[in-house]
Queue: 4 jobs
Job 1
Amino acid sequence: MHVVATLSLKGGVGKTTVALGLAGAAQQHGVRALVVDLDPQANATIALDVGPTTATIADVLDEPRRAVIARAIAPSGWGEGLDVLVGAEQTERHNHPDPGPKQLGRLGRALQRLSEPDGTDVDGETLDDPYRLVIVDCPPSLGQLTRSALACAHRAVLVTDPTMFAVSGVQRAFDAVQTERQRGNPELQPLGVLINRVRPRNTEHEFRINELRELFGPLVLSGVLPDRSAIQQAQGACLPIQRWDTPGAREVSAVFTTLLGRVLRSERHRTVSSAPPATR
């Protein structure tokens, strides 16, 4: 199970769009995935067209037992191979500004229980192969919710748009990742900086993109997400961008396919790095 958090410490830059796009790419390429909606706005849950559940991520953070987790997970309306640990406004009660280790470990314990033997999926059947990919959509603040995601994630996608305040936000997000690595999750690494809502031939956008490349170098992903109305249209229809058949949607889908490839390569690298040395 490879855990990837989509992260920004400024609201409105499109981190949920990135979580949804990555989930759609995973589904398109047959990678079984779970989206964890940690944002109290629960926009990812809405866009993923999830049916009613008897529990939410708020309940899981109250009590990360397997029975509670099973009640909080539902299949996405997008189709097979994609489930959702549903979000709720009540999750905000867990967003303490200065959480302790026990609070920060609850999400990680819940995800660990999903991969334990004899785990069950949302249909009550045995999980022979747990989710290969877990995508955590974080809120745009550095409280308990975001920090709990970073405490159990293997990679973080830092999402920004090419504006002055968003550039400052991605710097804070990068610092948060580095702090959490030193604090107790040495496996956590930034996967890259993904720039969203880019308009061609926009002087301000070009300036900010160059600024990001000066700040973060090769960490800035070469593929940027263009500002396309197809993204909002697909989300409004509760469909993955991969199934929205317009030229703009195909352009955006290609970026998410590339991002998925980077995620899967980082998974393989982590697996190889953590494998015990061969014995003779």
Note: The first helix runs from residue 15 to 28.
Job 2
Amino acid sequence: MRKKSGVISQTQVAGNEDSASKISQTQNEPIRDSDYTLSRVPAEAKQPFWRILVIRIGSICCVSQLVLGASLGYGMSFWGAFWATMLGSVLLQVISWALGTAAAREGLSTSLLSRWTGFGKMGSAIFGGVMAISMVGWFGVQNSVFGEGMANILSFTDFLGKFETPAWSIVTGIAITVLVVFGVKAIANFATVFVPLFIVVVLYASFVMFQSNPLSSLFNTPAPGPALSLGAATTIVAGGFIAGAICTPDYGRFLRNGTEVFWMTLIGTFVGELGMNLLAVLLAHATGTNNVVDMMMATSGVIGVLIVVASTVKLNDINLYSSSLGLSTMINALFNRKLNRDALVWGLGIVGTFLSVIGIINYFTGFLTLLGVAIPPVAGVMVVDYYILRRGRKDLEATREAGTLPESVEKWNPVALAVWIIGFAVGEVTSIYSIGIPGLNSLIVSGILYWVIMVVYAKVKGVETVEFARTKQVL
């Protein structure tokens, strides 16, 4: 139980008592959309476990996961790729479970949850903006994969063969944008169809491969391409889904409790991360290439390649969905405005499609590595603040049953922002000099440093819990 809170500087809401009262009355009004962009997900809107699980599996079982696994297999032995995948997957599992559990309890998206888990209102604006940009980047990457794959597969046809990569990227970009406009239920329904198809095709390709390539030989086959170090490989594995792991609350908030979140993340990690990665490693060893389209064409034919390439849609809808939530949080924090989510989805969908048309896929590996180092520090701060320091837990718990948001929130937390920068710097330095696993380094350093500074700060000020300037303009 907190004895008292040390307020470093108390900010009063501008205006007279009447305007303050109006703000208090309107700040917790629910958003008029079915996906609760800037509000809690109420109990009656929670979704069945299987529906959220299929979204999770679909966000991992995709072409980019095969590309990642094939890249590992092209540069590593099977067992080297196995350990890189295991290390990266454990990191993703811990982050996903911790943040997803907090989201299930509070019913808040990642960027909105960050307001009460260390970053404050303006800090959440920065974080929301970073996530919006990152996920739009991923949208562009996946869209490029789809466009390139479709152009290559159908190049032999008379009519469809005239469509090149940019044209296909535009088609799928618009289609995904329309899907995301309909919200999380539409995303789940789409994944329910394509996830099983994707898994069946990959398993069939693996079966064909095993017919002519004994498993014993594939397990011990040397890497067909240039060597890839364990540290670099693990960072790529973690970076390949680190943004997705931190965005777990965006759909995990529709679950009922932490137990459901645990099984969702565990099953998704084993099926998607371990399963898809290691099968792709074996495929790379069997075919001697890291080109996924060539790999699938050699084993499952045109129909299989079409299904695998089309599966990018079920990952890209989550990218666009999370990006719209992050941008909505940023705009709300900066301008105190609640914008229509559909309009944001359309705007971001157009931007992401444009990125895919100009060829962002060329920066794929560098993009993954950057995400593997830059985003984990945020998760380190959020987990420590919510589970250890528990600074915002009392306010969140007091308003949880009513389904509203707390009446006030910190404006800034300079410690969290400074630690974020330091954690990113540590990750970059350790990446340059190949020291340990950069993504894990940045997360651990940021979490520990944030905890130490906040505890020491509280002792110096003679208070139990440090709080910074607050505002009643929660939304």
Note: Residues 1-32 have pLDDT under 50 and may be disordered.
Job 3
Amino acid sequence: MSDTASAPAVSVAVLGTGTMGAPMARNLARAGLSVRAWNRTRDKAEPLAAHGVTVVDTPAEAVRGADVVLTMLYDGPAALDVMRAAAPGLRPGAVWSQSTTAGLDGLHDLAAFARERDLVLVDAPVLGTKKPAEEGVLTVLAAGPDAARRVLDPVFDAIGSRTVWVGDDGTQGAATRLKLVLNSWVLTVTHGAAEALALAKGLGVDAGRFLDAVAGGPLDMPYLRAKAGLLLDGGLTPPSFATTTAEKDARLIVAAAESAGVRLDVAAAGAERFRRAIEQGHGDEDMAASYFASFEE
């Protein structure tokens, strides 16, 4: 990486302005960085203009001249498709902060593209959902060369409260591997809360009594309270983390485990719960909608 490319970033292209990408773009602009954003559905990106973000029509226009390209898209194939569309505007040596949860196979394809285009790939998935993204307090899990860290310091400082560097090679997936482990725990807790509340309903137990019984003890946790609250208060939309995305991540976790010779029965069953909830029409709701998979509809 050249000396110029290792200077702190001043311009960022954000590709994908959904639940996570939009608040990330806003926080980058609020931090004083020059931000251009693209989204497949432009109407969803337009509100960012009021926050100082330049909204453009094509990925290539977004990335032209950018110090950093940040991708926050649905999955690995989507990220690869968008980066191929961005190729005419990419400059050799640009830093690519790949924050999509792409899985190991997906990251392999993205790393190959980065090599083809002479991009500096930083594997940088984030831990957190809609509210932490809006507040700029995500945890960034990152792997990439030392020179890229200085480039990304102002970017990661704007979108997160903590950056955990786990390796110096963004192509090997160290950050993605950690993200899959963390997501496996998040999804397990989500299903546990959903099933406990479903069982309470089936047995005629007041959900409040369950929550009161564990209050303050070792079985209590903020995440249980958050997901139970969404279900009990009817707050599943807009989603903090959509059921469709949770199912995708669950299947990436199972696939990664299988490639490592590890059997994850709970994760596989959880992916199936999400699939049933999606079939029942809960795909665009928060993943706590796993609850509905316990009942026939």
Note: Residues 139 and 162 are 5 Å apart (CA to CA).
Job 4
Amino acid sequence: MPRHTHLSDEALVALVARGDETALGALYDRVGRVAYGIAYRILRDERLAEDAVQEGFLAVWRAAAAFRPERAKASTWIVTLVHRRAVDIVRREERRRAEPLDVAERPDAPDPAGSAEDAAWLGFERDRIHAALRSLPDAQREALELAYYGGYSQTEVAERLGVPLGTIKSRMFAGLARLREVLDEAGSEGSWTPRLTS
């Protein structure tokens, strides 16, 4: 990412709007630590804070074209997106904790009558996701497969592939954004959001 070192944050957002993954990685390198600190102060949980940062930077990737530098600095905009995601996660976690344990979630619960249909649906979804993964550029697919099927953290993926962590993060953000698009085009609700871990 050295080619981006002389650019302002606002210029990097403009490059992200044109699909430049390395610009997203450069933004993450500049703003990610501050964004994580804010998310952690809200959530008090490392994994949830990482989720908030992931979702916030995914929003940067998707909404970069809508950014208006006359309204706010790019770093402020990014931190605001992460802050919103952190607040959303707090609300989601509060709702989840308030919900009673569903009968189907108990380990001793009998199989529901529709289990064969559920298994067929899950198989169909798995096939759709595999097909969507195959449509990604090799670098994005490799990073996502190592993370989600190999169980490696982003740091471990970076070490295994011998590339900077920021590059891995930008590949994964871009890959996830593209997966959403592919799955949406195929009729998905766009609800598949894997967890990224550092």
Note: The chain has eight helices and no strands.
